[in-house]
């Protein structure tokens, strides 16, 4: 074992193995196979991550170098951004430094840069990082800043692991280590099909998040069964609810993907339209991890996909002991990103950040459980299935132990 990162079987190479073997993941990141939770630190599948900063930003922070290793790694965060964005960035910076401290003798030097939460800042600090010889860049956080970094890094053959949840900014050499809505959709539809649900209805918001979820849902539900009703709502939630309610007699599962307050409002609109939601299996995404959802009588027994809870709880305890405060939910992304590059730099030699290494089909396991990068830059995560109950979420199916090759 090598501190908080350890190798299975001491093998020097990442590899794919069968799904029944404990060594299915090439690397184990974080403490021994910790998972994560959607609760305790806030929702995790928010539409495209933190909102753009509001109000005047603070002064741009000076670059910071942490560690003395030979492998230089850039970390780009909106440290001077206003509001919640700056708070999230500081928590992610702390988590990144925590990962370095918990990994024994990492051969990396982390160059922390402040992009201010905007594309111009991202372009500036990316140029600085490339000039300083970084081999890989972690960040930025905002979708609007990722292309600015990606364009410059790609021209130099430097890979990027960004934290945006907008899959449209992923691409060749630009990987997203984030909680993508698509993962929630695929997991919950697959699980519902495994318990015999084949006819699906859906009610989604008419916004950017809803568009992403729509594409994933139609693909997943079309593969597992059929869609008998589908509506999107903007201002007229009641009208869309009435249309779906009229078709629920031929559906055995109803999928609603929105934040907690909106999910409750949508469920209430369906009930007002005459739908008996107790006669149908309700399905949702990680945004259902919300006290309003657990308190809703009509959503009791609903199922949604989310990481397992144990990893984030343990991570939060270590973070709290070190920094005297609770981490934001996205802090684990920065931790896992730094832990990943530290492990790869130690174990993979000159191929440490090659596309073949980063897209190893066996994937990796970190604070938030199993994950792997796809060749298109998006990711796949191993998620649990949770049931809504008045006292909080109850796990009904654990995350997978491994990925198939």
Could you give the topology of this structure?
Blueprint: E1 27-28, E2 64-66, E3 71-77, H1 83-102, E4 108-114, H2 119-131, E5 136-138, H3 146-155, E6 160-162, E7 174-176, H4 181-194, E8 199-205, H5 208-224, E9 226-233, H6 237-245, E10 253-256, H7 260-272, E11 281-284, H8 291-295, E12 303-306, H9 310-323, H10 331-347, H11 355-358, E13 364-366, E14 369-373, E15 379-381, E16 384-387, E17 394-397
Parallel strand pairs: 1-13, 3-4, 3-5, 5-6, 6-7, 8-9, 8-10, 10-11, 11-12
Antiparallel strand pairs: 2-4, 12-16, 13-14, 14-15, 16-17
Helix pairs in contact: 1-10, 2-3, 4-5, 6-7
Describe the structure concisely for a colleague.
With 405 residues, this protein is of the alpha/beta class.
């Amino acid at each position: 074992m090598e501190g908080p990162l350890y190798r299975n079987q001491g093998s020097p190479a990442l590899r794919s193995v069968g799904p029944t073997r404990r060594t299915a993941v090439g690397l184990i990141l974080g403490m021994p196979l910790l998972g994560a939770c959607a609760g305790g630190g806030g929702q995790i599948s928010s539409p495209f991550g933190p909102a753009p900063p509001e109000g005047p930003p603070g002064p741009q922070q000076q670059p910071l170098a942490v560690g003395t290793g030979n492998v230089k790694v850039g970390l780009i965060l909106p440290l001077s951004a206003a509001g919640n964005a700056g708070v999230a960035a500081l928590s992610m910076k702390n988590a990144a430094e925590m990962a370095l401290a918990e990994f024994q003798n990492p051969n990396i030097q982390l160059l922390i840069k402040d992009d201010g939460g905007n594309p111009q800042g991202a372009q500036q600090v990316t140029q600085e990082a490339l000039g300083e010889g970084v081999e890989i860049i972690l960040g930025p956080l905002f979708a609007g800043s990722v292309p600015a970094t990606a364009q410059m890094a790609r021209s130099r053959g430097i890979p990027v692991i960004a934290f945006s949840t907008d899959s449209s900014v992923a691409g060749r050499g630009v990987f997203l280590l984030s909680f993508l809505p698509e993962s929630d959709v695929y997991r919950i539809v697959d699980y519902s099909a495994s318990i015999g649900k084949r006819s699906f209805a859906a009610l989604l918001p008419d916004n950017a998040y809803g568009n992403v979820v729509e594409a994933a849902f139609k693909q997943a539900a079309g593969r597992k069964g059929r869609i008998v009703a589908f509506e999107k709502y903007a201002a007229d939630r009641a009208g869309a609810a009435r249309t779906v309610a009229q078709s629920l007699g031929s559906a055995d599962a109803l999928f609603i993907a929105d934040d907690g307050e909106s999910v409750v409002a949508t469920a209430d609109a369906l009930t007002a339209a005459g739908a008996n939601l107790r006669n149908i299996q309700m399905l949702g995404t990680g945004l259902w991890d919300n006290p309003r959802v657990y308190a809703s009588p009509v959503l009791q027994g609903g199922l949604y996909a989310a990481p397992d809870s144990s990893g984030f709880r343990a991570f939060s305890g270590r973070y709290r002991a070190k920094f005297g405060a609770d981490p934001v939910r996205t802090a684990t992304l920065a931790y896992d990103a730094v832990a990943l590059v530290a492990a790869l730099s130690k174990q993979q030699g000159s191929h440490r950040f090659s596309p073949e290494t980063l897209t190893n089909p066996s994937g990796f396991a970190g604070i938030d459980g199993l994950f792997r990068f796809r060749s298109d830059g998006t990711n796949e995560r191993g998620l649990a299935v949770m049931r809504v109950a008045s006292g909080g979420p109850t796990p009904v199916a654990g995350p997978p132990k491994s990925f198939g090759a």
